[in-house]
Write a structure and sequence with these properties.
- By secondary structure, this protein is mostly beta strands.
- It is built from seven helices and 18 strands.
- The chain has helices spanning 119-128, 130-133, 201-206, 221-226, 291-299, 388-391, 401-418; strands at residues 9-14, 25-34, 45-48, 54-56, 62-68, 72-78, 85-90, 95-102, 139-151, 154-167, 177-187, 227-237, 240-249, 258-265, 271-278, 303-318, 321-337, 342-358.
- The strands form three sheets. Strands 11-10-9-18-17-16-15-14-13-12 form a ten-stranded antiparallel beta sheet.
- The radius of gyration is 22 Å and the shape is globular.
Length: 419
């Protein structure tokens, strides 16, 4: 991503009116809280069992999930460190509201058996087992992301996109394809000083760490040699026992190295979740863009420094196989220009969620349908959306997206009038 380079006790309350339709749109909204502190829980996985549909909670623990049909469905609610819950929901009404209080799991299990297990061997076996653990047949993922950029408390940019990703299968090395469905974006022209902000298809694909494991700077052969791995214990996640493994740089090298955690299913050795960032000691070696891009920035008297970068991803089961579920990317960039007299930090965030999975669509998209890997999604014209965004399953926003969009547009109009 970003400048030109680019997430107990259950009380169910039914709050709407009954309907007799057999195949209709059902809206399920709710909030997930810690059972003791009642603090909202972020990035909780909300899945409809037996289907590919799902979403995740926002910073305030809120979620919004739309589905079709009638009868009874089961929601699976899971989060690292908490007991997984399965909630039966009767879809007799068009709007359903759920309040969920999750209980913490027992914590890390320091089982004797784990002392004899090498964390590096666990990870190497997980890499070898990718063909067995992940969806190997061609399939289509329906995805959504929201990006926003802030300067202190002011929003400089916000965008949302809905798209289909054709995956040839986790065993195939062929690059994924992206078919853009809808996109909306607004950017503060003056405050961003003409910088292009957004996502390209190749950056969306890179959120799937497992699919790109051979190129990952931690889990490729070179990365495994340059990081220490430590087995902390066993944690419960999505009803599975998972090895919790921490990692950090092996030695002080003048390279970009990482620190963080990875969770691996103890039964199947499937990667379940990742959470890592550039090590603070190695952040100074992180350069923005490639050599050509940096040369162009120097000519334009533009300096961009990476001041912090973190990626969190989770995976979920579809049947007995795993797929990418959610991703949250945070990046702090320092931007400066002597000629234009500005120097500030921009905080960038990307929230991604897979909202549905189609294993029946096994034909690649046509050349006319796909968006080129290096094309900025925010530059594409997908037409007037109308009520599209209200009818689509998205990540419940942490802020009023519509209001922020109007405020940025108003600032742009004032800037045009003055100039």
């Amino acid at each position: 991503m970003i400048f030109k380079r680019f997430y107990g006790l259950i009380i169910v309350l039914i709050l709407a009116y009954p309907t007799c339709a057999q195949n209709r749109s059902i809206v399920i909204t709710g909030k997930v809280l810690d059972i003791i502190s009642h603090a909202p829980l972020e990035s909780v996985s909300i899945l409809i069992r037996g289907s590919g549909q799902g979403t995740t909670t926002n910073n305030n623990g809120m979620f919004d999930l739309k589905t079709n049909g009638a009868g009874k469905i089961e929601l699976q609610i899971s989060s690292l460190g908490y007991k997984t819950q399965v909630i039966p929901v009767h879809t007799l009404k068009d709007t359903i509201q759920i309040r969920i209080l999750l209980s913490r799991s027992a914590g890390l299990l320091k089982e004797v058996v784990i002392t004899h297990r090498s964390p590096l061997l666990i990870i190497q076996k997980a890499i070898q087992n990718i063909p067995n653990c992940y969806l190997s047949v061609p399939h289509t993922l329906k995805g959504f992301y929201r990006t926003f950029t802030k300067k202190q408390n002011e929003y400089l940019q916000v965008s949302e996109a809905v798209f289909d990703i054709y995956n040839y299968g986790y065993v195939k090395r062929k690059n994924n394809q992206l078919r853009l469905i809808k996109m909306r974006s607004v950017i503060d022209d003056q405050a961003t000083h003409g910088l292009d902000i957004g996502m390209k298809p190749k950056e969306v694909f890179e959120l799937d760490i497992v699919k790109k494991i051979s190129h990952n700077p931690i889990f490729n052969e070179e990365g495994l040699r340059k990081h220490h791995f430590r087995l902390e214990g066993i944690e419960y996640y999505q009803g599975h026992k998972a090895y919790e493994i921490t990692f950090y740089p092996k030695e002080k090298l003048e390279k970009v190295l990482y620190e963080g955690k990875v969770w691996v299913d103890s039964a199947t050795n499937a990667f379940m979740a990742f959470d890592y960032k550039i090590s603070n000691e190695n952040l100074q070696f992180s350069h923005f863009g490639n050599a050509v891009e940096r040369m162009m920035m120097n000519l334009a008297d533009l300096q961009i420094f990476n001041k912090g970068e973190r990626l969190q991803t989770t995976y979920r089961e579809v049947g007995s196989k795993w797929i990418l579920s959610t991703a949250v990317y945070n990046n702090t960039l320092g931007l400066s220009s002597k000629k234009k007299n500005y120097n500030f930090d921009a905080n960038v965030r990307v929230n991604y969620v897979t909202t549905n999975v189609d294993t029946l669509h096994q034909t690649p998209f046509t050349n006319k349908e796909i968006l080129g890997n290096n094309k900025l999604i925010e530059f594409q014209d997908t037409g007037v959306a109308g009520d599209f965004w209200k009818d689509y399953t998205i990540i419940f926003p942490d802020f009023d997206v519509e209001k922020v969009g109007l405020e940025i547009k108003a600032r742009n109009e004032k800037f045009k009038i003055r100039h």
